[in-house]
Write a structure and sequence with these properties.
Blueprint: E1 8-12, H1 21-29, E2 33-38, H2 46-50, E3 57-61, H3 67-70, E4 74-77, H4 86-93, E5 98-99, H5 101-113, E6 116-121, H6 126-137, E7 143-147, E8 165-169, H7 172-178, E9 187-190, H8 198-201, H9 204-211, H10 213-216, E10 223-227, H11 231-237, E11 243-247, H12 262-277, H13 282-290, E12 300-305, E13 308-312, H14 319-327, E14 334-338, H15 348-357, E15 358-364, H16 368-385, E16 394-399, H17 401-411, E17 417-420, H18 433-452
Parallel strand pairs: 1-2, 1-4, 2-3, 4-5, 6-8, 6-9, 7-8, 9-10, 10-11, 13-17, 14-15, 14-17, 15-16
Antiparallel strand pairs: 12-13
Helix pairs in contact: 6-12, 6-13, 7-9, 14-15, 15-16, 17-18
Length: about 450
């Protein structure tokens, strides 16, 4: 759709955290007649609604109405809305085009600004990698960082120029819709790609197909950088028509990082391969990332209490991420909190690793009993098959995060690490991984205050 002036635009999904606020505000600025609809109540959305005070926007909250989709000129959906959604189907049946905030930005950024775009995706590590590459590139370029990392760049379109660089963290949801534009970025970075969001996409193959949008439309002269230790990532990278740069398993010339964990060293190496292509030298790149302490809920140091370190890695929502977090610390010193919502992922490899490396594994959430059974079964198998297996982790059914933290407070010893790295989604107990991480922080903060007294 070319001009939006006077067009009837339905924004589907305002969100408790204001996900639709930026696009609604931008659409009003384009002269569109905007209707925002969300199934959540006005009370739950009050903070988001407040950010749109005074704008000529119609709100339909607590429900969706079919006519708001069939009678619109354009529907802008939240990235989390699946293609199978009934109201999306109503719009499509009426011939109404569907788009997203990211699609609106990309099609205009590509045609109007001439800026160089760097796209980053993966199942885990994309936010940290996007932040690292943005920091490195800022040594030589004016950089705009946005996308799934939580920053809308729509309002910045008028100030983005051909000499700028746009770094976009892109989720599988965003990439699914971006495929409609037959667009891929000039520079692409693929971190670890595993299994996630299968119920939304319909299958693991469809999830990987969405991720491959990052490179599917690349042309000769474009570049994709990939962590070659992950087979799925490497297979996707090799479908690009551009140059494929592989970061090998053995790393040389490592960066001095505050970030904990070998996986974060790999993220820095991915970022460096792009920065190097864009005229950033090694010293500049090293300086840019040396003081980066990381993003919230990503191996975030919360406190040290009585010689015990408390670390929040609530972002670890898949088994592979829980294992990577555990490996960031000395074997035998980790008390790891795992569990939450069951997305159907295979947890066996995670259970084996945690039994071998942790001092204790505390199971919480919907998966408490499933994980306890799998961990105990793995423990028995290892005792039976290995003569000198060494000490194996205790397995504790904590059920709730409060109980896990309380157990850790009583049983952790100086030098131990109490690590929230659940390996599962947070749904059910928490709306998202951020809320889970914030709860962990508050529980640790209360423990710290009590210790001080």
């Amino acid at each position: 759709m070319d001009g939006l002036n006077s067009k009837r635009v339905t924004v589907m999904g305002l969100g408790h955290f204001g996900g639709g606020v930026a696009v609604a505000r931008w659409l009003v600025g384009q002269g569109a007649r905007v209707l925002v609809t969300d199934t959540a109540s006005p009370e739950k959305l009050s903070d988001s609604i407040r950010q749109l005070d005074g704008l000529p926007i119609e709100f339909v909250l607590g429900e969706h109405r079919a006519r708001d989709f069939s009678d619109a000129d354009l529907v802008v959906v939240s990235p989390a809305v699946p293609p199978s959604d009934a109201f999306v189907s109503i719009a499509l049946a009426a011939g109404v085009p569907i788009t997203t905030e990211m699609n609106l930005f990309v099609e205009r950024c590509a045609t109007e600004t001439g800026a160089t775009c760097v796209g980053v995706t993966g199942t885990k590590g994309k936010s940290t990698t996007a932040s690292l590459v943005a920091r490195m590139l800022s040594k030589r370029h004016r950089v705009h960082l946005g996308g799934n990392i939580g920053v809308s760049l729509l309002a910045k379109l008028p100030e983005i120029t051909a000499s700028d660089v746009v770094v976009l963290e892109l989720s599988s949801y965003m990439l699914h819709r971006l495929d409609d534009l037959s667009w891929s970025p000039r520079f692409a970075i693929l971190t670890q790609i595993g299994q996630d969001h299968v119920s939304w996409h319909g299958s693991l193959e469809a999830y990987h197909h969405a991720k491959a949008t990052l490179v599917r439309h690349q042309r000769a002269g474009d570049v994709v950088v990939v962590d070659a230790t992950h087979d799925a990532s490497l297979a996707i990278a090799r479908t690009s028509s551009g140059e494929v740069i592989e970061v090998p398993g053995e790393l040389h010339d490592r960066f001095d990082l505050q970030l904990i964990g070998e996986h974060n060293q790999r993220h820095a190496q991915l970022a460096w391969r792009v920065a190097e292509r864009m005229n950033v030298n090694r010293d500049e790149a090293a300086e840019a990332v040396r003081e980066f302490a990381g993003l919230p809920h990503r191996l975030e140091s919360v406190a040290t209490i009585g010689g015990v370190s408390w670390v929040n890695d609530s972002i670890a929502t898949i088994p592979e991420a829980a294992v990577a977090a555990c490996r960031a610390f000395e074997a035998g010193r980790v008390i790891q909190i795992v569990g939450g919502y069951d997305k159907g992922n295979d947890m066996r490899a995670m259970c084996r690793e945690l039994i071998a490396r942790c001092r204790a594994v505390l199971c919480i959430g919907q998966m408490t009993r499933t994980l306890v059974n799998q961990l105990e079964s793995m423990k028995s198998e290892m005792h039976a098959s290995i003569d000198d297996v060494g000490p194996l982790a205790d397995v504790i059914a904590s059920e709730r995060l409060e109980e896990a933290v309380a157990w850790a407070r009583l049983n952790a010893r100086p030098g131990d690490v109490v690590l929230l790295a659940p390996g599962t989604a947070s749904y059910g107990a928490y709306p998202n991984f951020e809320a889970r991480g914030e709860h962990f922080r508050s529980l640790v903060g209360a423990a710290h205050a009590e210790f001080d007294h």
